[in-house]
Design a protein that fits this description.
The chain is an alpha/beta fold. It contains ten helices and nine strands. Strand 7 and strand 8 form a beta hairpin. The longest helix has 40 residues.
Length: 357
């Protein structure tokens, strides 16, 4: 066996590259034909269909709600901030949604997920699309963290906050031959400094849905949407800067956005889901990094190190270090800890807290 593995180590990579180079024109032609067919002949009509959108109180989830509304779908908007959902539901009706339900729920609680899925089925009688947009990013160096109780919260929101709604909705998606849409990120396969836990959670999420795709055998479609470094995340609040230090966590779904990259990304997600795409990538040119990662990882690492070095010396992040309480965003309600399926010991006010929807 060792001899066989040694032989394949030497032969398989170059042979695969040669085969791909020879077959690339044919594969590109087939993919183009498939794309044309889906664009012109296989786009799902969403009128009167039922769409559940989690994390719909703002940001990507909000924009996706408007895109489905323009297709005259029935919407179920889920988030913890019910007051935000009221305004979004009114706008969704204005742009074309047939009916809109709003439900306050926490997607990291399985009971909450069962509640909003069951209420959707009781009201509309079906579920056609489930859109998971719940996500939480961070920006800190791992060795700076002194309060490790923040770790489970990141994994709960980025992983279980997508898995629980999917698990509960699967029986009803089977009945409608529906589709699950997942909001992933390029960090799932291109990890970056200061985003270690976020990248790990997104990688776990993508692999979960890739495995689930095979289990479902195309009876339920799965669209994995992957975004790169959307400008709004950095410039509109995902990372708030104060005195040169990262001081604030923001959930992606809480970004206040209208127009620009997030709206374009939402349009691509909904259009790709309705056409039955397995993947939606924004922007798609990020795929070139895959070649470097597998065939020249040293070049990719060297490039990122150079880019990071050009931004100056390393700055200490106060997030999760317990140095002092994090400031509240202007106009936001008081915060509370996010509960999860696990149990944790109480934390002091000096420790990291999350924004309440």
């Amino acid at each position: 066996m060792d001899l066989i593995n040694t032989l394949l180590n030497w032969v398989a990579p170059p042979a695969t590259l040669v085969m791909m180079a020879c077959s690339w024109p044919a594969l590109y032609f087939i993919n183009t034909c498939e794309w044309l067919y889906k664009v012109f002949f296989s786009t799902e009509n969403m009128e009167d269909k039922v769409v559940i959108i989690t994390g719909a109180s703002s940001g990507i989830g909000e924009q996706i709600a408007y895109e489905y509304a323009r297709r005259r779908a029935n919407l179920v908007l889920v988030a913890r901030r019910e007051h935000r959902l009221r305004g979004i539901s009114e706008k969704a009706r204005y742009v074309g949604a047939k009916h809109v339900l709003i439900m306050a729920a926490d997607v990291v609680k399985e009971d909450d997920c069962r509640k909003f899925v069951y209420e959707t089925v009781n009201h509309f009688g079906r579920v056609d699309h489930l859109v998971n947009t719940a996500s939480l990013g961070h920006t800190f160096f791992m060795e700076e963290v002194t309060d490790t109780s923040i770790f489970p919260h990141l994994l709960d929101i980025n992983f279980w906050g997508n898995v629980y709604p999917t698990f509960v909705a699967l029986p009803y998606l089977h009945q409608s031959n529906g589709r699950v849409i997942v909001n992933a990120a390029v960090e799932s396969w291109l990890p970056l400094p200061r985003m270690s836990l976020y990248a790990a959670a997104k990688a776990a999420l993508v692999n979960f849905y890739e495995s689930l795709r095979f289990e479902l055998n195309d009876e339920i479609g799965i669209t994995i949407a992957t975004h790169g470094w959307i400008g709004s995340e950095m410039s509109r609040g995902k990372f708030m800067l104060e005195d040169g230090l990262e001081m604030q966590w923001r959930e992606e779904r809480e970004l206040d956005v209208s127009g620009g990259p997030v709206e374009d990304y939402a349009k691509m997600i909904v259009a790709g889901a309705c056409r039955g795409y397995q993947y939606v990538k924004y922007p798609s040119w990020y795929d070139i990094f895959l070649l470097y990662r597998f065939f020249a990882p040293g070049v990719l690492n060297w490039t990122f190190r150079m880019l990071l070095a050009s931004n100056g010396t390393r700055r200490t992040s106060m997030v999760g270090t317990g140095s002092r309480p994090l400031p509240l965003l202007e106009g936001t309600p008081p915060r509370k800890h996010i509960t999860s399926p696990m149990s944790y010991s109480p934390r002091s006010p000096q420790q990291l807290q999350f924004k309440q929807e």
